[in-house]
Amino acid sequence: MSPKITTELLKQLRQVMKSPKYVQEPIQAYIVPSGDAHQSEYMAPCDCRRAFISGFDGSAGTAIVTEQHAAMWTDGRYFLQAAHQMDNNWTLMRMGLKDTPTQEDWLVSVLPEGSKVGVDPFIIPADQWKSMSKALRSAGHDLVPVKENLIDTIWTDCPQRPCKPLIPLDLSYTGVSWRDKIVALRSKMAERKVLWFVVTALDEVAWLFNLRGSDVEYNPVFFAYTVVGMNTIRLFIDGDRMMDPAVREHLQLDSTLEPEFKIHVMPYGSILSELQAVGAGLSPKEKVWLSDKASYALTEAIPKAYRYLTLYTPICIAKAVKNASETEGMRRAHIKDAVALCELFNWLEKEVPKGTVTEIIAADKAEEFRSQQKDFVELSFATISSTGPNGAIIHYTPVPETNRTLSVNEIYLLDSGAQYKDGTTDVTRTMHFGTPSAYEKECFTYVLKGHVAVSAAIFPNGTKGHLLDSFARSALWDCGLDYLHGTGHGVGSFLNVHEGPCGISYKTFADEPLEAGMIVSDEPGYYEDGSFGIRIENVVLVIPAETKYNFKNRGSLTFEPLTLVPIQTKMIDVNLLTQKECNWVNSYHQKCREVIGAELERQGRHEALRWLIRETEPLLKVQ
Amino acid sequence: MSPKITTELLKQLRQVMKSPKYVQEPIQAYIVPSGDAHQSEYMAPCDCRRAFISGFDGSAGTAIVTEQHAAMWTDGRYFLQAAHQMDNNWTLMRMGLKDTPTQEDWLVSVLPEGSKVGVDPFIIPADQWKSMSKALRSAGHDLVPVKENLIDTIWTDCPQRPCKPLIPLDLSYTGVSWRDKIVALRSKMAERKVLWFVVTALDEVAWLFNLRGSDVEYNPVFFAYTVVGMNTIRLFIDGDRMMDPAVREHLQLDSTLEPEFKIHVMPYGSILSELQAVGAGLSPKEKVWLSDKASYALTEAIPKAYRYLTLYTPICIAKAVKNASETEGMRRAHIKDAVALCELFNWLEKEVPKGTVTEIIAADKAEEFRSQQKDFVELSFATISSTGPNGAIIHYTPVPETNRTLSVNEIYLLDSGAQYKDGTTDVTRTMHFGTPSAYEKECFTYVLKGHVAVSAAIFPNGTKGHLLDSFARSALWDCGLDYLHGTGHGVGSFLNVHEGPCGISYKTFADEPLEAGMIVSDEPGYYEDGSFGIRIENVVLVIPAETKYNFKNRGSLTFEPLTLVPIQTKMIDVNLLTQKECNWVNSYHQKCREVIGAELERQGRHEALRWLIRETEPLLKVQ
């Protein structure tokens, strides 16, 4: 990796920062956050502006360029990568270290008195604008919105915003029509006494209309906004994709509909002016509902007194609770995914000892097996295929510079998943293709105990996921071990592999209570820097639990694993398991054998079936 | 209980609400919160203004009186009591029910346009003022501070503010001199770049000066404020108690001291004017540190730009971590407390079958046995002595109207504690003096499993207590049971039995991380409305834990029970315990037998000793 030379680019940026063509008054600093106008986790190439200006392309980072300085804030995962990818024009601000200033403090320390700091109001969320603006103002500076993105003005070969065809999903996948979703949304709006709802997150637009896209890698979404009124629906979207007859029929664009279900298709870029028009026409007590995370530009389009902001939108909450069709789809997707992984692990077992399989080859092979399955669309995230010390890098993905060969002497960790038309998968298995050491087995078994503790937990209806996080750590804690990430995240249904508003993490307090139909991951781990990484991840469905009693009639919940891939018994120290844990593993493996075995049989994959049978032999615990 | 007749009082209050003697302009509503000027949990009688005006004397409630209405907001614990204690002049606002308006919404709905709402600025915390004031302003009303408390103007027989003698604590109790505490506080102030620190919580003043008082029942504190500068100390306190030679010597009031340790004693009532003088004399960048919870009056004395507000003060955090002398004191106090309880339970065992022991008699007997112990000062809270259905009322204390006779047919729950000069205790035991049913034993055993799960938990240094809360519930959850309160609270050292900033509760997220030397309670329970209550509570000390490994060199923590009172084995269904849990109970009882047995022996309490020996027989678990 050689750093990107940015001298010329920074010169150009500093010129436009003073150009009356783009700014009313010269600005003394320009902020380039990661992130697009929808606060997406994954970016389209045209939105990777921070990577363009700096060379640093990690998933998290904020660049700030002043007349004299260029500085990049990023977290511990990316210190090394950022240092390699950026040239000497840049100062790396290592977040989390004691002496690293915040962006606000740094700006105050370097700016001349009464400076203006610019930012694209479409990229910065309203809540971040608020705190940044307050801090700057109290030091005598101003945060100002710069309408045209200044990076775009100097990015001559900027890729076009993707505008790929849409995939309409019929009722057999979604369970609920978009009309019914609009009706439900309007009823939530009526409850809160709001007249308008602005949909800004891409997965919320996709979910609402039962449409999918491929504008962004891994997330089957498309660039669009929606504004839903009590009697109108406006969909802001570009390109000729709305000419597709299947899409037109799906959205009933050419039918005679009741006016309140008529979708008005408008250009993507007209959202701001349309919203401003809505804002200007409001009477007292008429409110517009927006997410807390919507961009400053859209939030400002609505006068403050008319805004109704919430952390989670009603779509986010409805989307998290999967209906029967979605749940069945997720089950099917996970069965296919398990077939692909049985094939992969059977193949790896034969090939790894030859010394020819690298992390990249293994990842590609996993994708190949997945792509053979029905309704496969794409991967759901960049495959983490890591062996030995690479396994300890929690957000690792193999690149040629780091690519390591799998061997019979090292632990292999594979965290991967796919998008199928019927569901989204995300599974981690940790395998040894030789003989694991007693210590490796010990650590693996603690992680397994944590995984089982969450998966088998019974808890009252309405419990928030963060209250389950410690169950995953208890066995590790007993021995002085731990892992530095959350235990689980929400998973979309043929949508984003990471979705809110539920999850299992000690870091959050604002998660929504778990309820039946929600789907989360259960993925404790243990990482030993420089030697190995262990993680065991299933996607699990929240289901009602039968209990002996029923306090206050609240009802109880538990989890059903959707992921059905054997957990390598070779890595388990059975003596460390309780009988209950041992029974859990055996009945899990029994289910893998039955369900995945039948599908392998049906697909005629006999070698993988034999592998599955062998890997699901019951554990024997000596009493 | 007959309601208090408040017609005349309300008439008088409404008169003073318009009297130019007290208000610049007439006010249309007056808020009477619970609470004193220090945000204390327990009130002196002179501060029970809300009880005086309404008759309702529960621990939580806010009264608002307008020209036409009088309304009382309280929570589910007190719906019945408030309804009984208040006459028809009052409307009960049942908080937590869907149709109950907030105080702000109610005020807006009943007030004429442009009203003024008054409140005593010393009683309302600054953060509550802020939100209330904002809500009223946005509806066109004003929240105004009324200097003189209007209840006091009509409360002709208002008791005097207590002004009892002070108890100086020497180094053998406190471990650190008040001078060293001042030095440590100033170093924290220097770290945060503040010049002044205002101590408003009574237990913080008491802790800082190693003094105790008895102005408030149960909490050994005294009415005072303190303002610490980098070179000055001002103590605001009334009465001739500063004439006591022991106090003068303790505070070195008559010694020649370096000026920065010279304590300037000033009248309690002069805090506001002194603080205003401090505020007026500040130069830019000079800050004054106050708690978020300090009163609006004191917070306003400091211009906004000069305020430095935090949720927890440095004194609150330092006070929570007990030093070796305090820990030793707490151990001694708990040994004495256990002696008293062994005597009590031995006595109850003999007396209950006679049918002559009521809840009140049992509570009095507990106090009698405690008062026989060295350095006993008073109880640390109102004893919860409850049998049968009364046990299910979580905040029950027996009064003649509810007083029930203990019997061999009902579960008895005793939650009690005391203040000794060397420490504060708080212990709950649940006993059966006949034969418990299988169901009662089952529930008790789940609660015990939860108690042990927390007490024996090992967790990384820096873990927040709320992450341990689910451990206490897991066994109950497995059977569909739960309890609707937190699992533990911080405990002071001869100070408040409930103290921040640590605890074990699902309800909070802002607790400070646990560290060695902190002391909390571990008190899961189970309550069956109308039939029984179960709770098992020990006070436990956070101590370092030895673990096999040590991830990232963080170190681990666990708990050591300070409470050493047998847990009734008759109530335990041994078959429901794991071997590990069984071992925990046996080794806990072994320690009770050794430590408390030796003290009973020393005190010549042979009958109680025989009771202890019998009650600490090891459980036998059939493998």
TrEMBL record, chains A, B:
<dbReference type="InterPro" id="IPR000994">
    <property type="entry name" value="Pept_M24"/>
</dbReference>
<keyword id="KW-0464">Manganese</keyword>
<feature type="domain" description="Creatinase N-terminal">
    <location>
        <begin position="27"/>
        <end position="150"/>
    </location>
</feature>
<keyword id="KW-0963">Cytoplasm</keyword>
<comment type="function">
    <text>Metalloaminopeptidase that catalyzes the removal of a penultimate prolyl residue from the N-termini of peptides, such as Arg-Pro-Pro. Contributes to the degradation of bradykinin.</text>
</comment>
<dbReference type="InterPro" id="IPR033740">
    <property type="entry name" value="Pept_M24B"/>
</dbReference>
<keyword id="KW-0007">Acetylation</keyword>
<feature type="domain" description="Peptidase M24">
    <location>
        <begin position="328"/>
        <end position="542"/>
    </location>
</feature>
<dbReference type="Pfam" id="PF16188">
    <property type="entry name" value="Peptidase_M24_C"/>
</dbReference>
<keyword id="KW-0031">Aminopeptidase</keyword>
<keyword id="KW-0378">Hydrolase</keyword>
<dbReference type="GO" id="GO:0046872">
    <property type="term" value="F:metal ion binding"/>
</dbReference>
<comment type="subunit">
    <text>Homodimer.</text>
</comment>
<dbReference type="Pfam" id="PF01321">
    <property type="entry name" value="Creatinase_N"/>
</dbReference>
<dbReference type="Pfam" id="PF16189">
    <property type="entry name" value="Creatinase_N_2"/>
</dbReference>
<dbReference type="InterPro" id="IPR029149">
    <property type="entry name" value="Creatin/AminoP/Spt16_N"/>
</dbReference>
<feature type="domain" description="Peptidase M24 C-terminal">
    <location>
        <begin position="557"/>
        <end position="619"/>
    </location>
</feature>
<keyword id="KW-0482">Metalloprotease</keyword>
<keyword id="KW-0479">Metal-binding</keyword>
<keyword id="KW-0645">Protease</keyword>
<dbReference type="InterPro" id="IPR036005">
    <property type="entry name" value="Creatinase/aminopeptidase-like"/>
</dbReference>
<dbReference type="InterPro" id="IPR001131">
    <property type="entry name" value="Peptidase_M24B_aminopep-P_CS"/>
</dbReference>
<dbReference type="InterPro" id="IPR050422">
    <property type="entry name" value="X-Pro_aminopeptidase_P"/>
</dbReference>
<dbReference type="Pfam" id="PF00557">
    <property type="entry name" value="Peptidase_M24"/>
</dbReference>
<dbReference type="InterPro" id="IPR000587">
    <property type="entry name" value="Creatinase_N"/>
</dbReference>
<dbReference type="GO" id="GO:0070006">
    <property type="term" value="F:metalloaminopeptidase activity"/>
</dbReference>
<protein>
    <recommendedName>
        <fullName>Xaa-Pro aminopeptidase 1</fullName>
        <ecNumber>3.4.11.9</ecNumber>
    </recommendedName>
</protein>
<comment type="similarity">
    <text>Belongs to the peptidase M24B family.</text>
</comment>
<dbReference type="InterPro" id="IPR032416">
    <property type="entry name" value="Peptidase_M24_C"/>
</dbReference>
<dbReference type="GO" id="GO:0006508">
    <property type="term" value="P:proteolysis"/>
</dbReference>
<dbReference type="GO" id="GO:0005737">
    <property type="term" value="C:cytoplasm"/>
</dbReference>
